[in-house]
Model the fold of this input.
Amino acid sequence: MQSIDLGCKVLAPTAVGQVMTFASLFVGSVVIAGWNVVSFILEYSLLRRVYKLVPRLGYKEGVNSYKVQRSVASSTGGEVDTLQPSHATNGQQSAADKGAKSESE
Done:
C-alpha cells in the first residue's frame, strides 16, 4: 500500500506536468478537475454501497432505539451480530440499561 502511495506522489505531478507542457495550462486544469470528479463519484458510490451492505453503520448504540446484541447462531456454531429493538426511544435509556449502568459504576 505504501508503494502505491509513493508511486502516486511521484507519477501524478509528472503526468500533469507533461500534459501542461505539451497541451496548455487550461487542458491540464481540466484534466485535474475531471480526475477529481471521477474520483469523487467512484468513492461516493463505494462508500454508499458499503453503508447499505452493513446496516450496523446506521445505528449508534445508546442513541437510536436499536442496540446490538450477540446471539449464538445454531447453524454455524459461531456468534452473529443482530439488531434488536430496545424499549428506549429517542435516546432515552431503558430500565435494564440504567440498571446495567449503575452496576458498572
Notes: The mean pLDDT is 74. The beta strands are 66-72, 79-85. DSSP finds three helices and two strands in the chain. Residues 25-53 form the longest helix (29 residues).
